[in-house]
Design a protein that fits this description.
The structure holds two protein chains of two kinds.
Chain A: H1 2-29, H2 34-38, H3 41-46, H4 48-57, H5 64-76, H6 90-125, H7 130-144, H8 147-161, H9 173-203, H10 206-213, H11 218-248, H12 250-256, H13 261-270, H14 274-302
Helix pairs in contact in A: 1-14, 6-7, 6-9, 6-11, 6-14, 7-9, 8-9, 8-12, 9-11, 9-12, 10-11, 11-14, 12-13, 13-14
Chain B: H1 3-25, E1 48-53, H2 69-78, E2 83-86, E3 91-94, E4 97-102, E5 108-113, H3 127-138, H4 156-160, E6 170-174, E7 177-181, H5 189-194, H6 203-209, E8 223-229, E9 233-238, E10 251-256, H7 260-268, E11 274-276, H8 279-287, E12 295-299, E13 303-308, H9 318-327, H10 330-336, E14 342-344, H11 369-378, E15 386-391, H12 399-411, E16 415-420, H13 423-432, E17 437-442, H14 447-451, H15 471-482, H16 486-503, E18 506-518, E19 522-523, E20 541-542
Parallel strand pairs in B: 1-10, 15-16, 15-17
Antiparallel strand pairs in B: 2-3, 4-5, 5-7, 6-7, 8-9, 9-10, 11-18, 12-18, 13-17, 13-18, 14-18, 19-20
Helix pairs in contact in B: 9-11, 15-16
Classes of the chains: A mainly alpha, B alpha+beta.
């Protein structure tokens, strides 16, 4: 297993290199000059020499391949450079946002898993019942509902009309409730549907009939025999969603004023802040690698047939 | 599952949905419109003011690196400069310098500093601090975007080039007297001093904190920096020893909320005391029984316009440019596209600019499509022509406005083809003169700088993106640049503006109506035309 993990981590290095190159080229190709995007246009036109000075300061007067090479040389030493816009160390800027991102992603995944998997199990066990119909309809609504709209509705209903929770902001557990529900709603719906379908596939297999015929309690059959084997696709979805939520929460973060990596990434792109964009993308890529590795490890834990030796 | 069960389940879901929608649509139990609350006679000390930062997280809190509203709105609360721009009156006023003298030739400024002014670390501010702060801006090692802001000071260019240890023209006479010698007359010098780069910083704190000074600033302004949670909030507290007296407020919490709907909900929840409205929000708030009495409105110092490429056919002909000005009903567009949240532009200067000329109305272009058709015919385009227009997607001065303009121009035979581009691209193309027309918003607070974008020496990137040239305008602006007397400079600028309006290198569209909504308990906010978020908060107080 350890060898497998090491192999996977080593395999991630060329992936990360490719990602940095693609991001670098994309940022180079998209229109707009970082310096004129960063300083006020009026200041730029009143002081055109200052623009030249800033270009030199940030090395923007060098050819693109030299800039990329310098970036790589510094990156392997752990120096991702400074943000053009804030002059802050990129690594520090990203790490400052990581706790907020992790809190939001973890809370969303936690409640989505709890609610989604439970609903999926109940739906599968009570297939074609009223409750199954209700859960699946709600799941359909959950998947279809725009995050932006849901966020604003929750803010209005729970934050303004019945002021139970702060509508937006960051800092306390109360601030976490609405954004995590918003962000987790689509995932909850997805998990409910995936769990239901996985459970239905497993419940029809012969070993479940055998378990029942042995006189095991229904609860044991469902949770010990059926659920464990139905979990593989569920874990895959949770893993992919978890990694996606790290950087894909930008709409939720914007609506709720949540200081996460997603917002930082979008702002960095808007400001053409190349070092910061690279830092954010590297973090998100690493998150994907780590989470998918964790998913593979969990496969082995929940399914004894999976071996990586 | 039986049909009955299905019906029951479906009904339940519909019931839930209807409940949700009904809850959101039902009128809120609204308070009665507030009775005219008697103003307390004396301002009160204490309280926390929560404001919204609509432009996002500040890029820095170090004055020498700040260029945008997102940063300057905080820096101006933490730092002070020698002088300050009174945006309401459009004039420069004393701040750390209680007075100053200017020599007859306009080259020597002598500033007399207030005594007993303290930095937030407790040390007194002296003339040495002013010299250090100005030289810090010009130090090439610091690569400040404002490095050339004070280049008119004698010796500044040598210092910037690294050829001198200090700026020769800045002389500390004593602890409270500073003399600055200019290399040439610069009518914008005091304005540059009043700008963010002119903030005074304590040397020992800058050296102690290094790069961290941008995150833990120490100034001598009315509020002391307390904390900055990136992308979340900036907090500052009252500075007890502020030389104008302690601010009324105990604390200011500036929350980073870029999403307009979120700001509105936070305001409605009473968790935000003030915020700048967007166009659609203005429609709602100006009719709102609770909030309509708590709005401040002001024409911002920006002129939204459509620029014509004056070096490209058919816009080389003044009559074509004038015809377009006559052909469009700007008031109607303001009402429909902008929901009334703008003031029609009759000339280049907004009414809040110090050089605004009430007489400009005589030269303005009313909506007159017949006159437009007549001028086009005279110019040899009786059937009109086709032209392209560069535009962004900006809701107020982008594609929606262009679409409205297209209809008016079509009536006089002009076919407009919009090219939707991103702001930076528009600027680059306009700088290169690679366009027929563009739509943009432009403004600076200094009357002369605002008009220099029509001087022929500034074609392209320096600001004259319409490639306009008129020798008389050039001469007037050159005279204004050398004018020692403020009133004389204003007169020359007004004269130049009249010619510019007559020759119409742009279609004068509108000046933004900046609107700030505030809670009934907030007192002392002012209509600030530079940006409504540039509120001098030390005189703001809370009545509850």
């Amino acid at each position: 297993m350890l060898q497998f993990i090491l192999r996977r981590l080593l395999g991630a290095i060329p992936v990360l290199l490719c990602i940095t190159l693609v991001v670098f080229l994309l940022m180079f190709v998209i229109p707009g000059d970082p310096i004129t995007a960063l300083i006020d246009p009026r200041a730029a036109e009143l002081n055109p020499d200052a623009v030249k000075l800033l270009r030199a300061k940030w090395g923007l007067d060098h050819p693109v391949h030299i800039r990329y090479w310098k970036f790589l040389c510094n990156a392997v030493r752990g120096d991702l450079g400074k943000s053009y816009r804030t002059n802050q160390q990129v690594l520090e800027a990203v790490l400052q946002r990581v706790p907020a991102t992790l809190q939001l992603a973890a809370a969303s995944v936690a409640w989505a898993t709890l609610v989604g998997v439970s609903a999926g199990i109940i739906s599968a066990v009570k297939q074609y019942s009223v409750i199954d119909f209700l859960f699946m309809l709600l799941a359909l609504i959950g998947v279809s509902m725009p995050v932006f709209w849901l966020g604003l509705m929750l803010m209005y209903l729970v934050g303004v009309r019945w002021p139970l929770l702060p509508p937006s902001g960051y800092g306390t557990w109360q601030h976490l409730v609405l954004p995590s529900i918003t962000l987790g709603s689509a995932m909850t719906a997805l998990l409910a549907r995936i769990t239901r379908s996985a459970m239905l596939n497993v419940i029809r297999l012969e070993y479940i009939t055998t378990a029942r015929s042995k006189g095991l309690a229904e609860r044991t059959v469902v949770y010990k025999h059926a659920l464990r084997n139905a979990l593989i696709p569920v874990v895959t979805v949770i893993g992919l969603q978890m990694a996606g939520l790290m950087g894909g929460a930008v709409i939720t973060e914007s609506v709720f004023g949540w200081p996460g990596v997603g917002r930082l990434t979008v702002d960095a792109i808007a400001w053409r802040d190349m070092p910061l964009v690279q830092g954010c993308v590297l973090f998100l890529a690493c998150a994907f690698v780590v989470v998918s590795l964790m998913v593979d490890v969990v496969y082995a834990l929940i399914d004894p047939r999976v071996r990586y030796d | 599952m039986g049909a009955l069960q299905y019906r029951w389940a479906a009904s339940s879901v519909w019931f839930l949905l209807v409940l949700m929608v009904a809850a959101s649509c039902a009128p809120r139990p609204q308070a009665e419109p507030p009775a005219a609350e008697p103003e307390p006679e004396e301002p009160r000390y204490g309280g926390v003011l929560t404001r919204a930062c609509i432009y996002g997280d500040p890029e820095t809190l170090d004055p020498i690196y700040a260029t945008r509203v997102a940063a300057v709105m905080h820096i101006m609360q933490i730092f002070d400069g020698l002088v300050v721009f009174n945006a309401e009156k459009g004039v420069i006023e004393p701040e750390l310098a209680e007075r100053w003298e200017v020599s007859a030739d306009g080259l020597v400024y002598t500033f007399y500093l207030r005594q007993g002014v303290k930095f937030h670390n407790g040390r007194e501010v002296t003339a040495e601090d002013v010299k250090y702060s100005l030289e810090r801006v010009m130090d090439p090692d610091n690569a400040s975007p404002h490095i050339y802001s004070f280049k008119s000071i004698k010796g500044a260019e040598a210092f910037i080039a690294g050829e001198a240890e200090e700026v020769a023209g800045i002389q500390v006479v004593d602890d409270y007297t500073l003399r600055i010698q200019l290399a040439e007359v610069d009518v914008t010098f005091l304005w540059e001093l009043a700008d963010v780069a002119g903030c005074i910083v304590p040397k020992e704190e800058v050296e102690r904190l290094g790069d961290r000074f941008a995150e833990q600033p120490v100034g001598c302004g009315p509020f002391k920096f307390e904390r900055w949670v990136r992308d979340s909030e900036v907090v500052y507290v009252a500075f007890e020893d502020y030389y104008h007296g302690r601010p009324y407020l105990d604390q200011i919490v500036a929350r980073i909320i870029k999403e307009p709907a979120t700001r509105e909900l936070e305001f409605e929840a009473g968790r935000l005391d003030m915020f700048v409205l967007t166009d659609p929000q203005y429609v709602k708030f100006k009719e709102h029984p609770e909030y309509r009495d708590y709005l401040i409105e002001v024409p911002e110092l920006f002129t939204r316009h459509i620029g014509f490429n004056c070096q490209r056919e058919p816009f080389t002909d003044i009559r074509v440019r004038q015809a377009i000005n006559y052909a469009i009903d700007r008031e109607a567009i303001i009402e429909t596209v902008l929901h009334g949240k703008a003031y029609p532009a009759l000339g280049w200067y907004p009414p809040t600019n110090a050089a605004y000329n009430p007489e400009i109305e005589k030269y303005a272009y009313p909506y007159d499509p017949d006159k437009a058709a007549e001028l086009l015919a005279e110019a040899g385009h009786p059937q009109g022509f086709t032209a392209s227009i560069l535009t962004t997607s900006h809701p107020a001065w982008g594609l929606p406005a262009v679409e409205a303009v297209m209809g008016y121009l079509a009536e006089v035979g002009i076919t407009l083809k919009p090219e939707l581009v991103e702001g930076g691209v528009l600027r680059d193309q306009a700088n290169e003169g690679n366009y027929d027309m563009y739509i943009w918003s432009y403004g600076v607070s200094h009357p002369l700088l605002g008009l220099m974008s029509f001087h022929s020496m500034n074609w392209g990137p320096p600001g004259n993106r319409v490639f306009y040239k008129n020798d008389q305008v050039d001469a007037l602006l050159d005279q204004a640049r050398r004018a020692v007397d403020w009133d004389e400079m204003i007169r020359l600028c007004r004269e130049a503006e009249v010619i510019i309006v007559q020759e119409a290198p742009v279609w004068f569209y509108n000046y933004n109506k900046a609107v700030m909504a505030y809670q009934p308990w907030v007192r002392g906010l002012k209509p600030i035309p530079t940006d409504m978020d540039y509120q001098p908060l030390h005189r703001v107080w809370i009545s509850k």
